[in-house]
Design brief:
There is one protein chain. The protein is an alpha/beta fold. The protein folds into two domains: 133 residues, Response regulator (Rossmann fold), CATH 3.40.50.2300; 91 residues, Winged helix-like DNA-binding domain superfamily/Winged helix DNA-binding domain (Arc Repressor Mutant, subunit A). 43% of the residues lie in helices and 21% in strands. The chain has nine helices and twelve strands. It has a five-stranded parallel beta sheet with strand order 2-1-3-4-5, sandwiched between helices. Strands 6-7-8-9 form a four-stranded antiparallel beta sheet, with no helix packed on it. It has a three-stranded antiparallel beta sheet with strand order 10-12-11. A hairpin with a 2-residue loop joins β8 and β9. α3 runs parallel beside α4, α7 packs across α8 and α7 packs across α9. The chain is globular, with a radius of gyration of 18 Å. This is Two component transcriptional regulator, winged helix family. InterPro entries: CheY-like_superfamily, OmpR/PhoB-type_DNA-bd, Sig_transdc_resp-reg_C-effctor, Sig_transdc_resp-reg_receiver, ST_Response_Regulator, WH-like_DNA-bd_sf.
């Protein structure tokens, strides 16, 4: 059962904000083993920019950060999304300050140093919250929807049939929607190694463009691709 839950994590992207670089490196390494994509920020301002530019499903943030602290960062997030799961990391000396966050619908508050088992249990709560939320289904474009939980794409109310490689390519492009992804970056993710040909990647993208529509998967010749999404 544990293995099934961990596999489910691979459908989601995480935004992690932490200004302590040593803690940041350790936690982001763990998260990268669990999730499809981990976006890392060193302060609240950088985290806000990453949230606006990427498809984020879970937020994990430190409370004390420079420029924009965790509390102000969460306030901004709640202006944009009332449902995205948020986890706050903090030291025991900041418990009184954390009382401010109670109305902001946090999934959990974790005290530093972070214990892996507690982090894992909290992440399971986050995934459960996502599945109970209407945000599981995301609109990519007119009449095209992506269900994050089931990994199904519907176009004109019909489920598209994608191969395993096409699905991996789409998942990665979706995690980087509206951002140029290079052939090398996409190839390494799809094949999980550097042993692939650019021709193979082009063929996968060609098939995706045919199924989704050319307007959604833009080709930047000899550089890479952009998945255009709402």
């Amino acid at each position: 059962m544990e293995g099934i839950v961990l596999v489910e994590f691979k459908n989601f992207c995480v935004l992690y904000a932490e200004d302590d670089l040593e803690v940041q490196a350790n936690i982001s390494k763990i998260l990268s083993l669990l999730f499809l994509k981990v976006h890392v920020a060193s302060d609240g301002e950088e985290a806000l920019e990453l949230f606006k530019k990427n498809n984020i499903h879970i937020i994990i943030t430190d409370y004390e950060m420079p420029r924009v602290d965790g509390y102000k960062f969460i306030l901004k997030i709640r202006e944009m999304s009332q449902t995205i799961p948020i986890v706050v990391l903090s030291s025991h000396t900041q418990k009184e300050k954390l009382m401010n966050c109670i109305p902001l619908k946090l999934i959990e508050y974790l005290e530093k140093p972070i214990i892996y088992e507690k982090l894992l249990q909290t992440l399971k709560k986050c995934v459960k919250e996502i599945k109970n939320s209407a945000d599981v289904e995301v609109m990519i474009g007119e009449d095209i929807f992506y269900n994050i939980e089931s990994n199904h794409i519907q176009k004109n109310a019909k489920t598209l049939k994608l191969t395993a490689l096409e699905m991996r390519a789409f998942e990665y492009m979706f995690s980087k929607k509206n951002i140029l992804v290079s052939n090398e970056e996409l190839g390494f993710y799809v094949y999980d190694s550097h042993d692939y040909s650019v021709g193979a990647i082009k063929n996968i993208i060609y098939r995706l463009r045919k199924k989704l529509g050319r307007e959604f998967m833009q080709n930047h010749k000899d550089i890479g691709y952009i998945l255009k999404s709402l």
